[in-house]
Amino acid sequence: MVFFSRMDFSQGNLFGYIEDLQELTIIERPVRRSLKTPEEIERLTVDEELNDIERAVYLLSSGQDIQGTSVVANLPVLMRQNPAETLRRVLPKIREVLHVAGVEMQLTAAVSFLTVLQDESVSIHTYSHSFLHIILQNLEHRDAGVSNAWLETLLAVIEALPKETIRHEILNPLVSKAQISQSLQSRLVSCKIMGKLAYKFEAHIVKREILPLVKSLCQDVEYEVRTCMCRQLEHIAQGIGTELTKTVVLPELVELARDEGSSVRLAAFETIVNLLDMFDADDRSQTVLPLVKSFCEKSFKADESILVSLSFHLGKLCNGLYGIFTPEQHLRFLEFYKKLSTLGLQQENGHNDNQLQLQTLEQEKKYISVRKNCAYNFPAMIVFVDPKNFHLELYSIFFCLCHDPEVPVRYTMAISFYEVAKLLNSGVYTIHKELVTLLQDESLEVLDALVGHLPEILELMTTNGGENSGSESKLLSIPDLIPALTTAEQRAATSLKWRTHEKLLQKYACLPHIISSDQIYYRFLHRMLTIILTNNVLPVQKAAARTLCVYLRYNRKQEQRHEVIQKLIEQLGQGKSYWNRLRFLDTCEFIMELFSKSFFCKYFFLPVLELTHDPVANVRMKLCYLLPKVKSTLKIPSDKHLLQQLELCIRKLLCQEKDKDVLTIVKRTVLELDRMDISLDAEQLEKEKQQSEGRSTNVNDKIFEKKRRDNKTSSVLAKSMTLSVSGSSSGTSAGKEDKKSKLVRSQSFSTQALHPKYSNIDKCPNKSSATGYTSSVSGMGKSCMLSFTDDTFRTRSTGNSGNATFPSSSSLTTSRNSFNSADQKNNGNKESQSRKMSIKNRKSNP
């Protein structure tokens, strides 16, 4: 954005602005020249009435190259829509155009043909009949990129083709294409095809028809062909099995390993390493081991081209040949690895600085790659020497690699550090200094690589820390850990790589399992709060907030806990910046995830609700999104006062909110809250039930004694009549109550801001609850008084749990408070009713 108020229109700057405008004009001119002329636009115009097939045929016949390329790219779509017409009319045109097409259309066609195969738009028989010939015709294109693209398509097609089609369409022509008289490109393509065909046919067919061609190409006069065929011997060996590999493939590899071309020798060496599992012990000891020793001896002298590959595969070689090594050979390969690990860092052969020639840039890059490969193979070398011998045999090399001057080497060591720690197990305490060194590394790439498994590494350090391991002396096993961790965090915070900082803060959540609570409180917890307050990157702030909540979760000192909670409420929840108040809501969300519901309700419920009065709409909006989670922390009846506060805040939002977006979210949130279930506090309910049972029992005992004195001659019929009358009266009153509650719930939002249900929330529940309890209990006989009261209470509680709307919650609260008065009224009604029934009985039975 350009702020004109800050622009300086002095004479010197004005000329600068004019020059800038002139440069923009110069840049714009080529754009104008590249616009299409009316004649060109006319040639590019196509009749709109043509359908897709007709348009494709027209563009391939008389359109420009870019239009034809577009049609070829759209071929998979045409095949899905109308395969029959596309095969009959469009594909022949594409075949004609490809003879003279440019590189772009050729590459597009190769991709489109592969897509048609993957989409399975046609059967494989139809595909091989229509598309396979076009693919084979373009395999030997003069452009190497085009040829490779068609070859990749063909290799994918071979996977799906039946054997007979492969034999007639591919294998038979391959015999002539692989001859020495053919072009170099043709022979290279033949090599790659044969590597693929070895998987498709049985071993005897491969031996009879393919292996003679393989031997011929291994002896080709061009080193590119020999290299390519050598690379394919791995696939051929896996296709023909162990026996033929030993008698046919291994001799060819031995001969190619002595080839005059360095690329051929390199290909032979890597193929031997990859096929090591297919050779038996005799082949390894008599054939493979001498070859490997020869490669190692020549790598420093005559054949440095193989040095990088040898260092990369050395770990696999040492462990693959482990069983056949003599102690002397074992020591020789270990010394060779140590020499590679320090290659380029020290003077060789006793020469001094005056005698040494300056290393070229190529050599330096090669040596860095060698040391990087040695770092990659370090875990394999630990297995090779046995973890018990690590300190004696490999610790010095481990130290050198962790302190290597090149970042790629240290980066690789940081990645493999966790594997090294796992292998050392109880001896992991020997590498704690290197852990501290990598944590303090000046390169953030190294730190980022190490942090990925930092929790697992620290856990291994503390649980397998030798004599010093234990919960009471966690820090003794890694004495410099805390300064290293704080230094790493500060370096990440001052850099521009916020993702590394975020990752680091997330991993620091493991520290309560590693170091003491006091160390976390004084060195890390307040730092997390500072990051939340001062950092400008939202993911970093959220990571710090969650880690702070984890620290608070494992802090058992009440004074420290209360101090942190107070700071969170004062500096975040009541902070001057709305950004801090937003982060307070994020922190509360993490607290609800990590802590118990009662903890959140005790310390954070009311501070969260206070944000309903926040002057910034974004804060109120975020609070509305959080309210369903807030309500889910409540338990009824112990948190009924908090529920009332929540309802009051929602009513105020509905009445007073002026922002349209916030009001819309408030209404949506209210609907979601209305559908939510509030969890019941089972222990509290049981206590209340027991108390109500005790009161009911005392009242019923008094009534029973009084009626026993007055009505000694009452009959069973009168009792049954009393029960029926009371049942009908209670059913009638319950039905009215159900209708009343349904009427309240059926009211929806009108154009006004306040929902009718919430405007009467203080009046309706008291009346309905008292009426419901009175009608449900009145008219009961003395024999079933206690059980009916129990069932009524249980039914009401369950109903409130299932339909946790705000009126029903309030009615549950007020109904419990008015339970005693309802009982007294019910008892009076029952006594008068029973007296009337007894008078009637006396008159009917004189």
Molecular structure report:
The protein has 45 helices and two strands. The model is unreliable at 1-7, 348-352, 466-476, 712-832 and 839-846 (pLDDT under 50). Strands 1-2 form a two-stranded parallel ribbon. The chain has 846 residues and is mainly alpha-helical. It is flat.
Helix content: over 70%
The N- and C-terminal alpha carbons lie at a distance of 107 Å
Low-confidence stretches: 1-7, 348-352, 466-476, 712-832, 839-846
Count of beta strands: 2
Strand line-up in the sheet with most strands: 1-2
How large is the count of helical segments?
A: 45
Give the radius of gyration: 42 Å
What are the SSEs and their pairings?
Layout: H1 11-33, H2 38-44, H3 52-62, H4 65-73, H5 75-81, H6 83-98, H7 103-119, H8 124-130, H9 132-137, H10 144-160, H11 163-177, H12 184-197, H13 203-218, H14 223-240, H15 242-257, H16 262-274, H17 281-299, H18 307-320, H19 327-341, H20 361-376, H21 378-385, H22 390-393, H23 395-402, H24 407-424, H25 432-439, H26 444-451, H27 454-463, H28 481-494, H29 498-507, H30 517-534, H31 538-553, H32 558-573, H33 578-594, H34 597-603, H35 605-609, H36 617-631, E1 635-636, H37 640-656, H38 660-675, E2 679-680, H39 682-710, H40 716-746, H41 756-759, H42 764-777, H43 785-802, H44 806-817, H45 819-844
Parallel strand pairs: 1-2
Helix pairs in contact: 3-4, 3-6, 4-7, 5-6, 5-7, 7-10, 10-12, 12-13, 12-14, 13-14, 13-15, 14-15, 14-16, 15-16, 16-18, 18-20, 18-21, 20-24, 21-24, 24-26, 24-27, 25-28, 26-29, 28-29, 29-31, 30-31, 30-32, 31-33, 32-33, 33-36, 36-38, 37-44, 39-43, 39-45, 40-42, 42-44, 42-45
